[in-house]
């Protein structure tokens, strides 16, 4: 349908008036649109085909036409439009619409262009309106698998993976520690998150993604976008060992270095948005033992379980308000953890008073084994 709009413009001798990029979501999509000639009119009106990757959708856009900090508007057919999502510019206002409408607006060069009622000017000066675009619902010849890029390892030897220890972008992973068989006692509250907390707030995309192969480096973005309920600020939490305020990742690293476990407290639908593994890997890497929230986004909840973290919800959502940032949190009942059986959360306040809350979970038997082994990968390896 986008190509149909582009052909109409070409037939009238005009091209895009605004920057126009096309991002194939996979090699299969790239190969299919190339085979069927759909990329040709898009490129001929001025479109630039980017690599087969998420690209601007996750902030991997090396944008050259707009200085960072300058207010501007883009219109995309990506499925995300969080602040700064596409180009790491918080002043970029991103609106999401269909590919054909993106194409029409690009040709018109105006945000207020209505293809249903407004006219365009052809190369000869005549006025014309775009016809409703047409296309097949699915490729008539099916999808083209594209180029085969997989390289199988040698059959006669077991390959080793070597990574330069000084690399800032690649790092070999080491297994997470397994559960020690006991309860988790007197853990710090690293942060009590206030309000919406997506996986972008937990592990920001954009420039940070150059570190996605280096867990320790990318962990420096952990929860830097989340709002701290204690002060209403982002990336500023109190270190309960020193009394000083610092960044969330820095404080977590200090706790880990001192052998002190911590938890994070969250609001409703914690972890919504992009299903990125780093939003679960980073807390685990920096010493978290549990994430306790009013409710989870389903995929993030599972990702936390896979990394050996306790993904827990308040049995009474209002118990969120009972947690203070300077509380010590203990989780009891882990030896008898079973599907559908709540765990106990003992909260010790700074005045010495204690209260016990009930925490629910959705762990099944397999996922409980993940927790006990330290992660899903640890458990899988133990079965080899």
What's the SSE blueprint?
Blueprint: H1 2-11, E1 21-22, H2 27-35, H3 39-44, E2 48-49, E3 72-76, E4 92-96, H4 99-108, E5 120-121, E6 127-128, E7 184-192, H5 199-202, H6 215-218, E8 237-238, E9 245-246, H7 248-257, E10 262-266, H8 278-285, E11 288-293, H9 298-306, E12 310-314, E13 328-332, E14 343-348, E15 354-360, H10 365-373, H11 376-382
Parallel strand pairs: 1-2, 3-4, 7-10, 10-11, 11-12
Antiparallel strand pairs: 5-6, 7-13, 8-9, 12-15, 13-14, 14-15
- Major beta sheet, strand line-up: 7-10-11-12-15-14-13
User: Helicity, in percent?
Assistant: 10-25%
* Rg computed from alpha carbons, rounded to a whole number of angstroms: 25 Å
Q: What kind of sheet is the major sheet?
A: 7 strands, mixed, barrel
> What proportion of the residues form beta strands (DSSP E)?
15-25%
The secondary-structure element order is HEHHEEEHEEEHHEEHEHEHEEEEHH
What general form does the structure show?
elongated
Number of helices: 11
Structural class designation = alpha/beta
**Low-pLDDT windows of residues:** none
Write down the overall mean pLDDT.
94
Count of strand segments: 15
Question: How far from one another are the termini?
Answer: 50 Å
